[in-house]
Amino acid sequence: MAGGAREVLTLQLGHFAGFVGAHWWNQQDAALREPANAKLPPGELCPDVLYRTGRTVHGQETYTPRLILMDLKGSLSSLKQESGLYWNKQLDAAIAWQGKLTTHTEEVYPKNPYLQDLLSAEGSLSSDGVWKVKVIPNGKGPTPLTTATTPKPLIPTENIRVWSDFLRVHLHPRSICVIQKYNHDGEAGLLEAFGQGESVLKEPRYLEELDDRLHFYVEECDYLQGFQILCDLHDGFSGVGAKATELLQDEYSGRGIITWGLLPGPYSLQQEPQKNIYRLLNTAFGLVHLSAQSSLVCPLSLGGSLGLRPDPPVNFPHLHYDATLPFHCSAILATALDTVTVPYRLHSSPVSMVQLADMLTFSGKKVVTAGAAIPFPLVPSQSLPDALVQLGGTTPWTPLSACGDTCGTRCFAQSVVLRGLDRACHTSQLTPGTPLPSRLHACTTGEEVLAQYFQQQQPRVRSSSHLLLTPCKVLPPYPCLFSSSLSQQGLIQDDPPTGAVESIPVLGALCSSASLNQTLGDLAKELTKLDLRRWASFMDAGVEQGDLEELLQDLHSLAQCYQGGDSLVD
């Protein structure tokens, strides 16, 4: 890879993981399309960490995500499993069999008109079935957007059925793996239980398919630092993730494995009791097994609790979202993910996936929590010291790991990223001789301001911080979730907005938090109260009574890792 990029291979396991992943890749794509004359720093983030170069059968250069995703039959809608970018109509029509043919056709899903408009700007499919890509001025990625481009309307929410309805990025033919034995929708043939998911990757067909794709991507890497896994926790994909991380640990020992356990929006215990009991069991089994095989595991959810009690979803002061819509929830989680993963995606940084995990997961603390301020509250011409002082002693981010309010709980270690602030506002702009309102106003760099702030907030915590000029892009098809008080750059203003929000400053954090002691302990308590005779179908899927007893013991052991001691120093 050019410049010696430390490559990461991404795995997306499950349908909600597909939603988060689609937003994630759209945001990477928007960053690649940034006009060359934009007032942004050159190359803070290295796209080669996540993307790979290649060529189609017709010799055209491509730049696609280094990605393997697994989903169920019926989940792709109009997206081709082999990817339209590499599709060859002539090869598709070449059939060796000369005998009688019987053709069976499935219902063809129409492509979202919005995506048809977007993709037509990038290229077109010729009459002979060859995708003709438009010239790429910067030699990498799709044609950059220009300021003259007419803004496209937002995708109507009712048009979003599956994640491929709003994915605007071309994928490599080796990216998509469909589990044909289970259905995405319907009343039967669903991947509901952890044991079912484990059994998928025990079948030679799917195990060999995953292994073959892993080798394809890994063998072309020069400096593979590891794997990031987006995995649904609430359904049978928690079992798929458990077996996938076990495979990675066996074959690629020493590489980083960072797993993001994803949970969709709120639920109703009264309306779907079996689904929610399964969700509890799948989440518990997933967390324990994934933490055993991963360098780090972080649950991500807008819900208030991992347990059966349906706590209300979290609140963001400047966002208006519908927590029942995966399209909305996944956009917020993807924005947080795009920020907290910055340390191992920088052009120049000594932080690798393994180093980041080691800093956060000492003494067996393999599970961490996430939080984010979306957007980070800043008014035009306000300095970073002023904004942080204005926050007072409150936690500056909204919790995103369904572990309740972490305010006031101990933090053992944390990694913080603040992005999207102009360099001019990094430090105080007070005139000489003016009394300093705080010690933050005496700092000479933005990095020093950030480090000083968290030292004051958590004086005995091992803390790592990064400050970037690059904002988070929220261009369509990102949903319009922002309050009318935000400018196009996501700053808080009193004047009427001049246009839709296009980018925002974001503060994101990963924390090894003492709140996990109660969260994991409560999860174990709820499991002990279950009458498993009522949920025999879950056990029939491949989980035995001894597995449940071992799960409870592992949950208690994991919870105890977060008990006692104020910080790493202790």
Q: Could you give a short description of this structure?
A:
The protein is an alpha/beta fold and 570 residues long. It has helices at residues 15-32, 89-93, 113-120, 194-200, 204-219, 237-251, 273-293, 326-340, 353-360, 384-391, 446-457, 515-528, 536-540, 545-560, and strands at residues 8-13, 51-55, 61-65, 67-73, 123-125, 131-133, 176-183, 226-232, 256-262, 296-300, 369-373, 398-399, 411-419, 462-468, 472-473, 503-504, 506-513.
Overview of the structural elements:
By secondary structure, the chain is α/β, with parallel strands linked by helices. The chain has 14 helices and 17 strands. α6 runs parallel beside α7 (273-293). The longest helix has 21 residues, at 273-293. It is globular. The chain starts with 7 loop residues before the first strand and ends in a 10-residue tail after the last helix.
Our measurement of the CA-to-CA distance between the termini, rounded to an integer number of angstroms, reads 42 Å
What structural class results from the helix and strand content?
alpha/beta
DSSP summary, beta strand count: 17
Radius of gyration over all CA atoms, rounded: 24 Å
Count of discrete alpha- or pi-helical segments spanning 4 or more residues: 14
Spatial arrangement of strands, main beta sheet = 7-4-1-8-9-10
> What percent of residues adopt helix (DSSP H or I)?
25-40%
Biggest sheet character: 6 strands, parallel
Q: Residue ranges: pLDDT <50 for 5 or more in a row?
A: 90-97, 127-131, 133-139, 141-151, 565-570
Strand content: 15-25%
Shape: globular
The averaged pLDDT comes out at 85
